[in-house]
Amino acid sequence: MTGRFQTNLTLFREATRGDEAALTPIAQRTIAACYHPFMGVNDVVDALEYEAINEYVAENLGKNYCPILLLDQQPVGFAVCRDITIDLIVIDYNYHGLGLGSKLLAHCEAEMFQAYPAIAAQCFEPDVPANRFFLKNGWKESLTYYDKKIDVKTIVYQKPWRGAKVQAAGQ
Questions:
Q1: Tens of pLDDT along 36-55?
Q2: Mean pLDDT of all residues in the chain?
Q3: How far apart are CA 85 and CA 70, in angstroms?
Q4: Domain holding 110: CATH number?
Q5: What are phi and psi of 83, to 5 degrees?
Q6: Average pLDDT value for residue range 74-102
Q7: What is the pLDDT of residues 93-116, one digit of tens each?
Q8: Taking the alpha carbons of 161, 162, 165, 168 in that order, is the dihedral positive or negative?
Q9: Does residue 24 sit within a domain?
Q10: Considering the domain boundaries, does residue 70 fall inside one?
Q11: Can you tell me the distance from the alpha carbon of 32 to that of 35, in angstroms, rounded to the nearest whole number?
Q12: Could you tell me the residue range of the domain that residue 11 belongs to?
């Protein structure tokens, strides 16, 4: 994947392990502000106190493709892309509503379509804003399953590369 990509005031670069200290607080702030409507305040507090997101960020930096979105040279969002799946996409809550999430998603798509003819993303079913986000950006729901580990329904979205021919199951 390419190292840098620039549009207007935004710049993308691949995260390294040294970015953990800047990215973890972005994830923590955003989870604290956005996840309580569908997880409940106590579960969000528990998740943040348990430091699951800290471990997740540390585990993925340097191991998977993790682009950072910089605005005026400061990190304001990042994604975790594991093989064909965008596993996490986070824009700092303070920057929601500016179209930065769509820019980060488009960047991930462009990079991933260089290697794969179709890509996937997952959202918790109760996370209505995240589900709307993927639908608005041209993704199609392909599967819903119940994740026992975290006790929530999850929706899997797919998006084929514009030039790819998608075969029906069983062909």
A1: 666 655 665 566 555 777 88
A2: 84
A3: 22
A4: 3.40.630.30
A5: 50, -115
A6: 94
A7: 999 999 999 999 999 999 999 999
A8: positive
A9: yes
A10: yes
A11: 6
A12: 4-117
- Residue 110 forms part of a structural domain: yes
Give me the phi and psi of 154, to 5 degrees please: -125, 140
**Paired tokens of 150:** 């975290």
Using a 10 angstrom Cβ sphere, with 0-12 exposed, 13-18 middle and 19 or more buried, the burial of residue 105 is buried
Which among 88, 168, 163, 94 is positioned nearest to 122, based on CA atoms? 88
Within a domain: 146:
no
Percent of the chain topping pLDDT 70: 80
Read off the pLDDT of residues 2-36 as tens digits, 9 standing for 90 and up: 444 444 466 999 998 899 999 999 988 887 877 76
CA–CA separation, 105 and 7 (whole Å): 13
Long-range contacts of 163-169 (CB under 8 A, 24+ apart): 164/117, 164/118, 166/117, 166/118
| Number of domains, the chain | 1
The sign of the torsion formed by the CA atoms of 131, 27, 84, 70 equals positive
Structural tokens at position 157: 């979205």
